[in-house]
Amino acid sequence: xxxxVRAVAGGHTAAAxxxxxxxxxxxxxxxxxxxxxxxxxxxxDRGQRVVSAVRNPLHVADxxxxxxxxxxxxxxxxxxxxVTETVRGADVVVFAAGAGAGSGAERKWSVDRxxxxxxxxxxxxxGVARLIVVSAMGADLADPGxxxxxxxxxxxxxxxxxxxxxxxxxxxxxxxGRLTDGxxxxxxxxxxxxxxxxxxxxxxxxLLCELAVTGHGERRQFDVVSGETPIxxxxxxx
Length: 238
What we know:
It comes from Rarobacter incanus. The protein is an alpha/beta fold.
């Protein structure tokens, strides 16, 4: 949360000073995904200004129902200039786009890798300070010679992450385990090279919200699965 100091006059008394919270602007790329919708609601509930970029005009109403402003952006086909204008003025950009289950290898490269790199390029040009990328657990362990679509997905994530890590942005790369649709637990395990596990999308969204609002996790990459540590505590310890 960004803070500002404001003077408040009280009649004939001396001016008093108080700290006023100022909402951040958070742009979510891939705003209609399940995690992204949960994230938008969590951010809005904490008083943040949320802009959710979606490629389908029919999805604008969905993101607006959870408290975001919907804008159109097809990250797979957009120009650098279009993405730059979408993120301009943001305090935080969250890249949550993905080709999705059932998509072929080509879209893993064009969305999961190239889309993330395009978002990073645009964030740098627009002067966005913070970029949070939703990646995948085990990305660095992908079989380099496999033609299996899931292995290509992991390689695409790994290449995108490497590109993001090389930048001067205050980046954070979050690598969740297998995603489930269960209710939020509020508790996670966060660290490097964790054993494979799963985590609810709701807990991932709450972690992303905590990272965005507090600034924790800058220039850090980590795995996250379900666990016993409260999300705020885990994020603060990154």
